[in-house]
Amino acid sequence: MSVIVLGLSHRSAPVELRERFAFAESKIPTALQELRESGLVTEGVVLSTCNRVEIYAVTALAPDDQFFARFKNFLIAHHAYDGALGDELYTFAEPHSLQHLFKVAAGLDSMVIGETEIFGQLKKAYDLAFSHKFTGARLNKAFQRAFNVAKFIRTETNIQRGSVSVMSAAVELAEKIFSSLADHEVLVIGAGETSEKTARALQSRGVKKITVTNRSPERAAALAAELGTGTTTVPFAQWPEAFEHIDIAVSSTAATTHILNRATLEPLMKRRHHRPLLLIDIAVPRDIDPAVSELDNVYLYNVDDLKAIADEYLKLRHKELDHCHRIIAEKVAALLAANKFSTTDKHR
Amino acid sequence: MAWFTDRHCFLLAVLIYGLSTVYAVFLWRKGFRRDDWANYFLLATGVALHTLAMFKRGLTLHSCPVNNLYEATTFLLWALGLAALVYALLPKFKFICAYAAPVLFTVGVFALMPSLDPHGPKPEFSGALRSIHAATILQAYGAFGLAAVAAVMFLGQQHDLKAHKLRALLSFLPSMQRLELITTRLVAVGFLLLTVGLTAGAWLPRKDGVPYLADPKVIWSALLWLVYLEALVAHRFFGRSPRRFAAVVIATFLFLLLTFWFTNLLSPLHHP
To answer: Is the pTM of this model over 0.80?
Structure first.
């Protein structure tokens, strides 16, 4: 008995191929039933997301090339795929199958390294198979251990540390300046998609009051309606007046010159008693004159600054990969030793 | 164990503050990236030994150990260390210990100079009012010291955020607003204690022929009181920026540290 994996992911196959092999959630129990009836496996879990389609299974057969050829044929036949295939489908036997499962659970094999969404997706896939009794002792143990190791890696390493998107970097900055975002008001200048995403990211971290301003009042009103309760609008000509009570401003207008400069902001800062002000300029060309950052208690970040933060975090996550892989190798070795799992080489 | 005096105990405490300082340098070089209890426990051990040292001295004197410069300095440091341990329990404030350790170590080494404690445990004065006067003022200095430590953290964070340094985000330090709030509160507490201590001092019986209002220590204390009052009022009511407030808090505490012993020695009231 050994745990095996068959699948394709963003690393091995383009989206056109991934979508051909994707499983609809409602069809997974039937697919697993067919797989079991094929006599190839005794237990199985199907993970189907936008970035990967994988079958984790337990087989009593020897997981050799012949076995994996039959396993691949089952998948191809199930999806009635008649195109050509190269190395897009990958297969793993123990210990690599377990290492792969642990890596997937910890987000190490994800497109954005360290992301946590895959953990929930994997848990859901396992729960579905478990509830339909397609898992047994071996797969249960492997998945439980994978979830534990993923949590361990999350707490013991920096793999999930930091913001890897421009919007989340802006939110993280706000949290470094203000104690609680719930007590601070945000001014959104420009009603574009980026403004909306940033405003939503701030809302998700507790911001309750948002003021939207735009050259087109209709678009400002539409964005305010999208953002929901606690959001108001202010005419574009009057937005500097809002600076007295806001603490964070997100600007993304299509203006070709600076709409906020030092001369405008200096008296406004006096009126707001020099309370800290975070300015997030995500417009290109920039809306805010860089000279405003010379003012005391004004923190200005433009889109490149935020991108640099996100990139640095991503680099840090990549640096943590070796550490995470070592942890996984140790944990898999411990699991195999505890269960006297057989070991075979990786098959592709 | 009679050979093991309160000064040996304090020496051990200072050595542990030294270890804590060395560890703090490593934490700083790593950018305070992970929540860390090790430095907290190091500092807690130091403060425990420090408390024992003061307790032993207090038992010998049968009063609060604030009689000479050694005792005054150790009392000030003890107040600072204890406050740091308490504040470190607040979320993301653990690294205040790393910032406080160098102050505790350097001033602790200075306090160990034999000339500051020439006669050992010897009661120089008696009376509850005198003890209150000295103890509250030294506690106030401790609060000002910790406020200066928080202000250093504030300025460091502000510099990193302004300069777009990633370590500002990676560090496990409190938000700017929280650091500003803590600094302000510590200065306010220190100011209150200083007011109580100075008021108690004004009620103490005076020796004939020794000038009171012209005493260097009295003038120095009044000046200190005014500077902290101005800092609080300007920050709270006149919109003085947090950066300038933090700079004033640090500069005033440095002035306090550098002139505390000097003014004591010059004062006929305190150093007859």
So the answer is: no
